[in-house]
Write a structure and sequence with these properties.
It is an enzyme of class 2 (transferase). By secondary structure, the chain is of the alpha+beta class. It contains ten helices and 13 strands. A 13-stranded mixed beta sheet has the order 1-2-3-4-5-13-6-12-11-10-9-8-7, with helices on both faces. Helix 1 packs antiparallel against helix 2 and helix 7 crosses helix 8.
C-alpha cells in the first residue's frame, strides 16, 4: 500500500467513497478533514490507484510517538475486498503492531482478519460493537405518517420552540477549557491521554453544549477526527429536560450549513438514546459501528 498525497486524487477518492456510505463513513470523514486543513495530520493509504480495493487512514508517523496512546494511534479502514485485507494488515509498513492502537470501521467482515493477524503478532484485541446512526438530510420539510417531524423541520423551528435560552441555560460552543469536564464523563476516557485527545478535538472541531447555572456545561457533544459526534453526556439531574435535543438542533444546523458529514454511535443497551435519535430523523445503519483496541502482550 502507498500514501495518496495529491489533492486532486484525494478529491476523486472522497467522491468515490460517498457511493459506499455507510460502510466507508469513517475514512470518508477523515478525508473530509484532510481536505480541510488536516488538523490531526492524517494520511491516506490505498492498495492501488485508481482501482483501489482498500483504503486506510492513519496519523502521520510523527504523530504516533507515544506507543501507549491508542486515541492518537487510530486507523480507519474500508475495503471492497475483505479477502485481501489480512495481507494489508500484516504489513508492518501499514500497521505498527508494536504499539497500542485501535482500528475503527463499519464492516464486520474486518473482524476475522484483524484477530488472525493480531494473534500471529502476540497482540491482544478488545472488540466493541455498537449501533451506528446516520442521517440523510431531506430537501423538503415533511411530517412522516407517524407524526414525527424530520430534522430540517426541527432545525428550522422558531427560536422560541427550540428554547435557545431555556431559563438561565444557554447554548455554547465548547473550547479546550471544557476538556477536563468532558473527559471525566467519557466512558472511553477518564485518563491523561484521553484528556489530551479531547483538548485537541476541541481545538480542531466543533463541539456544542448547554451552560448551566454555575457557569459549567451540563450537556455536551464533541466531534472527532473522522467527523463522528462522540462523548455525548448530560449531567444526571438535568436529564429529561430537552438539553440534548437543544444541542442537536444547533449542531445539525451548524454542520449541514457547512456541509460537514456527521454520524454517531450508541451502545446496544442505551435504548432511550436510540429512541431520541430516531425521533430526530437518525437511522440505524445495519453495518454497525466496530472498534478493535489492540495491545501488544508486552503492554498487557
Amino acid at each position: 500500500m502507498f500514501v495518496l498525497h495529491e489533492p486532486q486524487k484525494l478529491q476523486i477518492l472522497y467522491e468515490s467513497l460517498e457511493k459506499n456510505i455507510p460502510e466507508s463513513l469513517k475514512v470518508y470523514g477523515v478525508i473530509f478533514n484532510i481536505k480541510n486543513k488536516n488538523p490531526f495530520n492524517m494520511e491516506v493509504l490505498v492498495d492501488a490507484w485508481p482501482d483501489y480495493q482498500i483504503v486506510i487512514t492513519r496519523p502521520q508517523k510523527q504523530e504516533m510517538k507515544d506507543d501507549l496512546d491508542h486515541y492518537t494511534n487510530t486507523y480507519h479502514i474500508f475495503t471492497k475486498a475483505p479477502d485481501k485485507i489480512e495481507e494489508a494488515l500484516a504489513c508492518p509498513q501499514v500497521i505498527n503492531w508494536e504499539q497500542v492502537f485501535q482500528i475503527q470501521g463499519f464492516q464486520e467482515s474486518l473482524d476475522e482478519a484483524i484477530k488472525k493477524v493480531a494473534a500471529s503478532k502476540s497482540v491482544q484485541v478488545d472488540y466493541t460493537r455498537t449501533k451506528l446512526f446516520m442521517m440523510e438530510i431531506p430537501v423538503k420539510r415533511n411530517t412522516s405518517s407517524n407524526g414525527k417531524m424530520d430534522m430540517m423541520e426541527l432545525v428550522n423551528m422558531p427560536t422560541d420552540n427550540k428554547n435557545q435560552n431555556k431559563g438561565d441555560f444557554l447554548s455554547i460552543k465548547l473550547d479546550p477549557s471544557h476538556a477536563k469536564l468532558v473527559n471525566e464523563q467519557w466512558d472511553f476516557g477518564k485518563n491523561e491521554r484521553s484528556l489530551k485527545y479531547i483538548e485537541r478535538c476541541l481545538q480542531s472541531f466543533p463541539g456544542f453544549g448547554i451552560l448551566g447555572l454555575q457557569g459549567l456545561p451540563i450537556s455536551w457533544v464533541v466531534m472527532e477526527q473522522s467527523c463522528e459526534l462522540r462523548m455525548a453526556y448530560t449531567v444526571p439531574k438535568y436529564r429529561g429536560q430537552g438539553n440534548m435535543q437543544q444541542i442537536c438542533y444547533y449542531y445539525v444546523e451548524y454542520l449541514t450549513q457547512r456541509k460537514i458529514p456527521f454520524y454517531l454511535h450508541v451502545a446496544e443497551s442505551k435504548e432511550k438514546n436510540q429512541k431520541l435519535l430516531r425521533m430526530f430523523g437518525f437511522n440505524i445503519s445495519l453495518c454497525g459501528w466496530h472498534q478493535w483496541q489492540c495491545t501488544p502482550k508486552k503492554y498487557c
